[in-house]
Design a protein that fits this description.
This protein is α/β, with parallel strands linked by helices and about 290 residues long. It contains 9 helices and 12 strands. It has one domain: 3-Layer(aba) Sandwich (Rossmann fold), CATH 3.40.50. The chain is about 40% helix and about 20% strand. It is globular, with a radius of gyration of 20 Å. The chain binds 1-O-pyrophosphono-5-O-phosphono-alpha-D-ribofuranose and orotic acid. 1-O-pyrophosphono-5-O-phosphono-alpha-D-ribofuranose (PRP) binds next to helix 6. InterPro entries: OPRT (IPR023031), Or_phspho_trans_dom (IPR004467), PRTase-like (IPR029057), PRTase_dom (IPR000836). Catalyzes the transfer of a ribosyl phosphate group from 5-phosphoribose 1-diphosphate to orotate, leading to the formation of orotidine monophosphate (OMP). Its cofactor is Mg(2+). Pfam families: Pribosyltran.
């Protein structure tokens, strides 16, 4: 687990945005854990969350640049994984669905040109992430949609920077993948390229509902169908590793002398939830060491 994932999980538990118990998901499954991004509802909380997203973006773009330098040597010096690179540059590159394998291997490595946050939660996430990126020296435009088109004033259902070049979709979670599908359509309709997705938590869950479980996870479906990567701040693997680590290496005690861990859960509780999550994962999840 990266330190970013560890710190994000700790933060989500401490703020109560990541909780254990019994929750019904959109797919109708009874989940022993739930992530509610709506609970980052003050400036400090949203700012810290946005900082994690910004760090993940910089990490991904840095990784793209490193990958490019090992593949293409000096070419990578001209990549777009830096502040100030523009959609115009991206438009000239040869990778993406239209490029051949040979072209892709030689093409400059490219970061993202615009952040797109699907309404509603994606709006605050993409906006706050753009602010956090700028504070870290990476000024990147952002845009979002309205769920209903505005028929007066400036009209339309897109707000913010023009969608062009390589667009990153910013959201909290992917459940069935509907929000990403709609975002891809909006981005393509604007003539831009959906180039990646950033989410907070990858539940590593297969599609379907409570009774029927699909072969692929919604995240894998996004990867396969749109040929773009999904970048999470943390995954279910990370959460399970975190719980194991904290249960096994507890050092803090609460007022009654009981061992405590992040989020105010006792270690005994965390051990119980860990096992419930592992059971849930065996039923609905993908891969995994649980
Ligand atoms: O992968 P999916 O099945 O689309 O589920 C995930 C989406 O669901 C939630 O948004 P919702 O549509 O509930 O709207 P909100 O952002 O207005 O809460 C969430 O914020 C994601 O955008
Ligand atoms: O599957 C869902 O509906 C879901 C899970 C989760 O952890 N968080 C969320 O907002 N939705």
């Amino acid at each position: 687990m990266t330190s970013l994932s560890h710190d994000f999980i700790r933060f989500a538990l401490d703020t109560g945005a990541l909780r254990f118990g019994e929750f019904r998901t959109k797919a109708g499954r009874l989940s022993p854990y739930f992530f509610n991004a709506g609970l980052f509802h003050d400036g400090a909380g949203l700012g810290r969350l946005a900082g994690f997203y910004a760090d993940r973006l910089l990490e991904v773009e840095g990784g793209l640049a490193a990958e490019g330098s090992s593949q293409t040597g000096a070419q990578a010096d001209n990549t777009t994984a830096r502040a100030g690179d523009t959609a115009a540059q991206a438009g000239n590159a040869a990778t993406g669905t239209g490029g051949t394998k040979a072209q892709a291997a030689l093409a400059p490595v490219r970061g993202f040109d615009v952040l797109f946050g699907p309404a509603y939660k994606g709006i605050t996430l993409a906006s706050a992430m753009a602010v956090a990126c700028a504070q870290k020296g990476r000024n990147i435009p952002f845009a979002f949609n309205r769920k209903e088109a505005k028929d007066h004033g400036e009209g339309g259902n897109l707000v913010g920077a023009p969608l062009k070049g390589r667009v990153a979709i910013i959201d909290d979670v992917i459940s069935a993948g509907t929000s990403v599908r709609e975002s891809v359509e909006i981005i393509r309709a604007a003539g831009a390229e959906p180039a990646g997705v950033f989410i907070a938590l990858d539940r590593m869950e297969r599609g379907g509902n409570a009774e029927q479980v699909a072969a692929l996870s919604a995240v894998d479906e996004v990867r396969q169908r749109y040929e773009m990567e999904v970048h999470a701040l943390a995954t279910l693997d990370d959460l399970l590793a975190y719980l194991t680590q904290h249960v096994e290496h507890s050092s803090t005690r609460n007022a009654s002398g009981e061992a405590t861990s992040a989020g105010g859960y006792s270690d005994a509780m965390l051990a119980t939830y860990r096992s419930a999550i592992a059971d849930y994962r065996r039923r609905y999840g993908t891969g995994g060491r649980a």
